[in-house]
Design a protein that fits this description.
heterodimer; A: six-stranded mixed beta sheet; five-stranded mixed beta sheet; 28% strand; B: 181 residues; mainly alpha; 65% helix; globular
Chain lengths: 838, 181
C-alpha cells in the first residue's frame, strides 16, 4: 500500500479511537498495525478528578490567580510554600497542646450544634476561641472592639444529614449519582401541541393600552412603550412538549451545585456553567438564598422551596441540561401560560391579586418570594403554577424587540431570533417586585444572560421522551399540585459565626492584621471608614495550603454622597464582588473586608491581612508621569476625567526593563481594560480604548511580578472624535466600548448614513450592528441589523436617513455585538459615511 | 438556509480565551477541555506521574500567565507549544541525567536490538525523543497532523509518515510479523 495513504489511514484510525475506543479500523490496515495503534491509544492515561483539581490549584497559584481571577500579591517563596506545602513541624509539646485545644474546641462546637443556641452563647464561644487558639498559634489576638456577631442561624429542626457522606453509599449505583438523583426535579406537565393553524401569540395595542391604564390605577409606572414589543398577534404552531409544574427551587438548584462541586471542585458557581457564572451566592448578593460554606452550597433557613433567583441564563440552562431537560422557548412558555383560550393572565383575562405574587417589594434585603407551590388558584389552563409573578423566568430565546414582525416568528416550533439585538435573552412572567402589568402572559422583558437578578428564576421544559428524570405527569385537571418528595435531605443551615472588628483606616505605609479562622469563627470582618479618595491594596498571606479556600470579599456601604436623593443619608448597601486585591474607595466611605473560611473543614487557619491606602494621583491627557514602585508602594493610581466614546491610549515605559501591568478602571473600580505587554518589549499599552461612559477613570500601574520594583513613566493621549464631514471614516472595534463619530448638519437637513464593510475586508459573519444618532443627548434614530449572514467586503450593511433637529453637531454611536473578530488583530473594521442634504 | 445559531467549538474557544484574557479564572472551561490531553502528553514524555503532574501545572500556569499571547484561532497548538517549552525547560534542568534527542531519527536499530522486554512501555521508552514527542502530541495530545506539523515545523504529510513509521517500528520491535503487501 502507498506509504502516504497508509499514513493517512493510521491518523484517521487514531482520531476515531480517541472518540470511541471501540471504533472499527479501516479495512486496509493489517491486524498487527491495528493492534499497536489500539494499544497506544488505550495507554493514554485518564486522570481522576482529584488530580485535575490539584493541578488546577497549583497552576492557578503559580500564575498568581485567585479563584476570582485576580492576581495576588505574594512572593515567589510564599507561592512555592503553598504549591508544595511542607509537613507541619510541631514539637511534641505543642502537638499535645494543639490536641487538647482542638478537643476542647470540638466539644464546644458539638455542644453548640446539638442544642438551641442563644446569641450569648455564640459570643462566649467566639471569645473563648479568640483567647485560646490565637495565643496557641502564636498569632496575636485582635484587640479591637469585640463586636462579635453571627448571622442569625438557629439550629434547624429538620434532620441533619451530611449531603454526600450519607447519600453516596445509599445510591450505590452508579458510583457518582446522576444529578437528577440529587435534585429530585419538578414534575413535568404534558402540554399538548397547538393545532396546525397555531395559537395566537403576542397582543394588540389596545390590550397594551388597557393594561397601562390598569397599571397606573394600581400606582404602577408603566408606559405603552414597555409593551409594544409584544405586538402584533401572530400565529405560532408548536409540537407537544412538557414543562415543569413549578419554578426551580433553591433546594433543587443547591443540589445541582453540590453535585457539580463534588466533581468539579469548589467555586463551581463562579464559572461552571458553560464558562459563565451560574448564580450569585450569599456573599456576592445579599438577596441570594444560596451560600457557599464549608465545602458545600446550602440554603438560608426557610427558603428551600422558594424559587431560585440570582441565577444567570447560563446557570438556568446548565441546570436544565444537567437533568436532561432544556429551557422552554418563549413561544412554549406563552402557550403554557395562556392555554388554548388565549388568556392574558394564567387564570383568565381579569387581574386578581390573590392569584399571583406581584407588587410586593422586598424588605431588609430579602426578596418577597413565595414557595414554588404557592398560588394554586393562579394555575394556568394546563395546570402550570406561578407563570405570573413570584420569580420572573428565563426562557431560551434571544431578545429582539421587533421579532414578532419577523417571518421567523411564525415558523413551526419557532426558536426566536438567531441573535439578541442587545445581547440579551427573554425573561417572562414578571416577578414579586413587578407591577401586574409585567406579569401578563404576553409581556416580554429581557436581561443580559451573564447577569443575575433577585427577580429572575426559571423552570425547565422537555421534549416528550427526552427527559432523563421524569415524574408522573400531573393531569391538567388537578388544581392542587403535588410536588415530588425529595429523596435526599440536604443540610439546609448550620451556624455561621463571624467576628467583626472596627479598625482604623489603613495608612499609606500599610498595616498588618493577623487573624485566625476555624469552625467556631468562619469569617473575620474588618470594617473601617476610608480616609482618602484612593486605592486600598489588600493582600492575604498564609503559609497554609488549606487556606486556598479562603474567600476574600469586600462590601461597601453607599453613603449617599453630598446632595443625595430622596430621603438622603445612608441608603442601601452596595455589595462589591470579591474580585480584587485592590479597590477604589472614596473618603468617608464605609468599607468592610471579609475574610471567610470556605472549602476547609476542621482546620484552624491563621492568616495575615495586609492593608495599604494609596491616594489617586491627578492626571490628564498629553501628560507624562514618572514614578517608582516597590514593596511599600506596590501600585500607582492615576485619575483622569473621560467622556463616553472617547478613544484613549495609555502607555507605560519601564526603566531598565522593569516589567509592569496597566489596568484601566472606571469610577467604581471595575476594570475596563488591562494589558501587561502590548507595548514595546514587556511594556504595557492600552491602545485605542473607547471609554464606555462620561466619568472619572483610573490608570493603575503594578509590577508584573509581585515583589519586584522599579521606575516607570506613564503617558496618556486622547484622539479627537472623528468627523464624518471629512469623508468616510473607518471605525475599529475591539472588545471595548462602542466608538463614536460626529458630524455637523443644518436644522432640518436630511442626512443619509451608510455603514459598510471596508472593501479590503475578508468575509465576515456579521451578527449585529446597532447605530444610534444623537443630537443634544436626544436619540434621533436607531438603525439595527441583526441577522447572521456571511457578508463580503465592501457590502453595505446599514443605510438610513435622519433629519437634524437643530443646526449643530450630531453624534453617531456604533455597537457591534457577537461579531467574529479578525483573529490576527482581534479587531473588526467598519466604514461609516454620510451624505448630507440627500 | 438555516441560520447558524451556535458557533463551532473553535469560535467558542476563541471567545472564551478572549474573555479569559481579562478574567483569568474564566480559563477554567478551557482547562477542563484540555487537562487530560496535556497531562497525557506530559506523562508520556517524563514517565513519572509526579513529574507529569508538576509539569502539567506549570503548563497551565504559563498558559494562565500568558493569556495575552494567544492570538486567536485554535487553542490546542498554542497550548501544546507552551507544553513543549515546559518540557524542554524540564529536560534542560535535567540534562545531566536525561539525554535529550531533539532530532528526528529513523534509526530504529536500538529498538530492533531490544531485549526480551517487549511491553509497549519499554518499547516506547527506547524510541528517539523526537518520536516519543510526536507520539505524545498525536496520541495523547490529540493533535491533528496539521496542528502537530505547525508546531514542529513539518508538513502534515511528513508528520503522518513519521507516525506511520513509528508504528511500524514498534510493530517490528515487538516481533510482530512484517506486512506482506
Amino acid at each position: 500500500m502507498n506509504e502516504q495513504r497508509e499514513a493517512r489511514l493510521i491518523e484517521q484510525f487514531v482520531s476515531a479511537l480517541r472518540r470511541n475506543p471501540h471504533a472499527a479500523p479501516p479495512p486496509q490496515l493489517d491486524a498487527e498495525t491495528v493492534a499497536v495503534i489500539r494499544q497506544l491509544v488505550a495507554s493514554t492515561p485518564t486522570p481522576d478528578a482529584a488530580l485535575r483539581q490539584r493541578v488546577w490549584e497549583r497552576a492557578r497559584l503559580r500564575a498568581r490567580i485567585t479563584p476570582n481571577g485576580k492576581p495576588v500579591q505574594l512572593s515567589e517563596d510564599e507561592i512555592m510554600s503553598m504549591v508544595y506545602p511542607r509537613p507541619a513541624r510541631a514539637s511534641s509539646m505543642s502537638l499535645l497542646t494543639l490536641g487538647a485545644v482542638l478537643l476542647f474546641a470540638g466539644l464546644l462546637v458539638a455542644f453548640l450544634i446539638l442544642r438551641p443556641t442563644p446569641p450569648d452563647a455564640l459570643q462566649i464561644a467566639a471569645q473563648v476561641e479568640a483567647t485560646s487558639t490565637d495565643a496557641m498559634m502564636g498569632v496575636p489576638a485582635v484587640t479591637t472592639t469585640p463586636t462579635n456577631t453571627h448571622t442569625p442561624t438557629p439550629v434547624p429542626t429538620i434532620e441533619m444529614v451530611p449531603a454526600f457522606t450519607t447519600v453516596v453509599p445509599v445510591m450505590a449505583q452508579p458510583v457518582v449519582p446522576l444529578p437528577g438523583e440529587f435534585i429530585a426535579p419538578s414534575a413535568l406537565i404534558d402540554i399538548p401541541g397547538t393545532d396546525a393553524d397555531g395559537f395566537f401569540m403576542g397582543t394588540t395595542l389596545e390590550e397594551v393600552q388597557s393594561a397601562v391604564e390598569l397599571c397606573i390605577e394600581l400606582d404602577g409606572r408603566c408606559t405603552e412603550e414597555m409593551g409594544v414589543d409584544s405586538i402584533p398577534v401572530h400565529p405560532v404552531t408548536l409540537s407537544p412538549f412538557q414543562i415543569e409544574l413549578t419554578e426551580v427551587s433553591n433546594r433543587q438548584y443547591a443540589g445541582f451545585l453540590n453535585y457539580n462541586a463534588q466533581i468539579e471542585g469548589s467555586y463551581f458557581h463562579m464559572s461552571g456553567c458553560f464558562g459563565y457564572p451560574c448564580l450569585r451566592i450569599g456573599n456576592e448578593s445579599e438577596t441570594s438564598a444560596i451560600r457557599f460554606l464549608d465545602s458545600r452550597y446550602d440554603i438560608e433557613l426557610g427558603r428551600d422551596e422558594q424559587p431560585v433567583t440570582e441565577v444567570t441564563w447560563w446557570g438556568a440552562r446548565a441546570y436544565c441540561e444537567a437533568i436532561g431537560r432544556r429551557l422552554p422557548t418563549e413561544a412554549e412558555w406563552e402557550w403554557a401560560a395562556r392555554g388554548d383560550d388565549g388568556r392574558i393572565y394564567p387564570w383568565g383575562n381579569d387581574w386578581d391579586a390573590t392569584r399571583a405574587n406581584t407588587n410586593r417589594p422586598g424588605h431588609g434585603g430579602v426578596p418577597n418570594v413565595d414557595n414554588v407551590t404557592a398560588y394554586a388558584s393562579g394555575a394556568s389552563a394546563f395546570g402550570v403554577l406561578n407563570m405570573a409573578g413570584n420569580a420572573a423566568e428565563w426562557v431560551s430565546d434571544w431578545y429582539a424587540p421587533t421579532f414578532y414582525r419577523s417571518t421567523l416568528a411564525t415558523v413551526v416550533d419557532t426558536q426566536g431570533p438567531p441573535f439578541g439585538v442587545m445581547g440579551t435573552r427573554v425573561v417572562r412572567g414578571g416577578s414579586w417586585d413587578n407591577a401586574p402589568f409585567f406579569a401578563r402572559s404576553v409581556h416580554r422583558q429581557d436581561y443580559v444572560p451573564e447577569n443575575a437578578s433577585p427577580q429572575i428564576g426559571f423552570r425547565c421544559a422537555a421534549t416528550p421522551g427526552s427527559a432523563l428524570f421524569t415524574q408522573a405527569p400531573v393531569a391538567a385537571a388537578v388544581v392542587q399540585p403535588v410536588v415530588a418528595t425529595p429523596r435526599i435531605v440536604f443540610v439546609t443551615a448550620q451556624p455561621f459565626y463571624m467576628q467583626t472588628v472596627e479598625i482604623d483606616a489603613p495608612p499609606t505605609n500599610g498595616t498588618t492584621l493577623p487573624g485566625m479562622l476555624d469552625q467556631t469563627r468562619h469569617a473575620m470582618e474588618y470594617r473601617f471608614t476610608a480616609a482618602v479618595d484612593g486605592v486600598i491594596v489588600a493582600s492575604l498571606l498564609t503559609n497554609d495550603a488549606s487556606l486556598l479556600g479562603l474567600s476574600f470579599s469586600v462590601q461597601r456601604e453607599n453613603s449617599g454622597g453630598g446632595g443625595g436623593s430622596g430621603g438622603g443619608g445612608s441608603t442601601s448597601p452596595l455589595p462589591v464582588m470579591v474580585v480584587s486585591n485592590s479597590f477604589n474607595v472614596q473618603a468617608g466611605e464605609q468599607v468592610s473586608i471579609i475574610v471567610q473560611l470556605s472549602g476547609v473543614t476542621g482546620a484552624s487557619v491563621p492568616f495575615t491581612l495586609r492593608l495599604l491606602a494609596l491616594e489617586h494621583i491627578p492626571f490628564d491627557f498629553d501628560q507624562t508621569a514618572e514614578n517608582r514602585l516597590n514593596d511599600f508602594v506596590p501600585l500607582a493610581s492615576y485619575q483622569f476625567e473621560g467622556s463616553a466614546g472617547q478613544i484613549i491610549t495609555a502607555q507605560v515605559a519601564g526603566v531598565d526593563g522593569f516589567d509592569t501591568r496597566l489596568m484601566l478602571t472606571d469610577t467604581m473600580g471595575a476594570p475596563v481594560a488591562m494589558d501587561s505587554d502590548g507595548g514595546a518589549g514587556y511594556d504595557p499599552e492600552l491602545h485605542r480604548i473607547a471609554l464606555p461612559a462620561d466619568g472619572t477613570y483610573y490608570l493603575q500601574v503594578e509590577p508584573e511580578r509581585a515583589g519586584t520594583g522599579g521606575s516607570f513613566s506613564l503617558s496618556l493621549t486622547s484622539e479627537a472624535i472623528p468627523s464624518l464631514n471629512n469623508g468616510a471614516q473607518t471605525v475599529l472595534f475591539n472588545s471595548q466600548a462602542a466608538p463614536q463619530l460626529q458630524f455637523s448638519a443644518q436644522a432640518g437637513e436630511t442626512v443619509r448614513l451608510i455603514v459598510r464593510l471596508p472593501a479590503s475586508a475578508d468575509d465576515y459573519l456579521v451578527r449585529l450592528i446597532m447605530v444610534d444618532i444623537y443630537q443634544d443627548g436626544v436619540l434621533l434614530a436607531r438603525f439595527t441589523r441583526d441577522n447572521a449572514t456571511v457578508t463580503p467586503g465592501g457590502q453595505e450593511l446599514i443605510s438610513g436617513t435622519v433629519s437634524a433637529q437643530a443646526t449643530g453637531l450630531l453624534t453617531v454611536v456604533l455597537d457591534v455585538s457577537s461579531t467574529l473578530m479578525e483573529p490576527s488583530t482581534q479587531q473588526f473594521a467598519l466604514e461609516v459615511a454620510i451624505e448630507l442634504g440627500g | 438556509m438555516r441560520l447558524r445559531i451556535r458557533p463551532p467549538a473553535q469560535d467558542e474557544e476563541a471567545r472564551l480565551m478572549q474573555r479569559a484574557a481579562h478574567q483569568p479564572h474564566l480559563f477554567a472551561p478551557i482547562y477542563e477541555r484540555y487537562f487530560a490531553r496535556v497531562y497525557g502528553f506530559c506523562l508520556r514524555r517524563v514517565e513519572s506521574e509526579q513529574d507529569a503532574e508538576d509539569l502539567c501545572s506549570q503548563v497551565f500556569a504559563r498558559a494562565l500567565s500568558g493569556l495575552h499571547t494567544y492570538r486567536g484561532g485554535e487553542v490546542a497548538p498554542w497550548l501544546f507549544a507552551i507544553a513543549r517549552n515546559v518540557l524542554i525547560d524540564h529536560y534542560r534542568r535535567r540534562r545531566a541525567t536525561v539525554p535529550l534527542d531533539d532530532q528526528f531519527s529513523d534509526d530504529d536499530t536500538a529498538i530492533a536490538r531490544a531485549d526480551d522486554d517487549l511491553t509497549l512501555h519499554s518499547l516506547l521508552a527506547r524510541l528517539p525523543d523526537a518520536q516519543r514527542e510526536l507520539l505524545a502530541l498525536l496520541i495523547d495530545g490529540g493533535l491533528t497532523s496539521e496542528q502537530a506539523g505547525a508546531l514542529l515545523g513539518k508538513s502534515p504529510v511528513s508528520i503522518r509518515v513519521q507516525l506511520h513509521r513509528i508504528i511500524h517500528t514498534l510493530r517490528r520491535a515487538a516481533r510482530l510479523p512484517e506486512e506482506t503487501t
